[in-house]
Write a structure and sequence with these properties.
single chain, 28% helix, Rossmann fold, alpha/beta
């Protein structure tokens, strides 16, 4: 299974948090990463998105075919995200468009086995795969693509 974590692009400050929109820079970030991803798009990719405006705008730069999942909203725990996407045994590929600190904590858990406060930059995409080698399940980091390096 492939799991792609995409933090929403830069958004305006303000309240309510759920209605914050992308800045002009954020729109550019989202389109750059979407372009990079489109040329590498996994087959049978499901796109799951937090209900916030900024995550929906980020995902829309890549596709209009996404599912809004409340469990991906700010403040949810890592187990909710894993359950929503079916990692690690769900099969296929899932792109999760979400928030800090949850995505950073999930990335830390996948790579180190423990939640930690890792930071994923705004607009960045982290791509993980899992595999079994000699009876052991392994998580592989396939790519980290910050928006400013695309």
């Amino acid at each position: 299974m492939d799991l792609l974590l995409w933090r929403h692009a830069e958004a305006v400050e303000g309240l309510p948090d759920s209605t914050r929109e992308l800045t002009e820079r954020g729109v550019r970030q989202a389109h750059k990463v979407a372009e990079w991803l489109e040329s590498r798009r996994p087959k049978k990719l499901r796109v799951l998105v937090s209900p916030t405006v900024r995550t929906r705008q980020t995902a829309s730069a890549f596709t209009k075919d996404f599912k809004i999942v409340p469990a991906l909203g700010p403040g949810n725990d890592i187990s909710s995200i894993l359950g929503a996407c079916g990692w690690p045994g769900g099969g296929g590929s899932v792109l999760v468009v979400g928030h800090q600190p949850e995505l950073g904590r999930l990335a830390a858990l996948l790579l180190s086995g423990q939640e930690a406060d890792w930071t994923i930059k705004k607009g960045a995409l982290w791509w993980f795969s899992n595999r079994v080698r000699e009876g052991e399940t392994q998580t592989v980091l396939r790519a980290v693509m910050p928006a400013d390096l695309v």
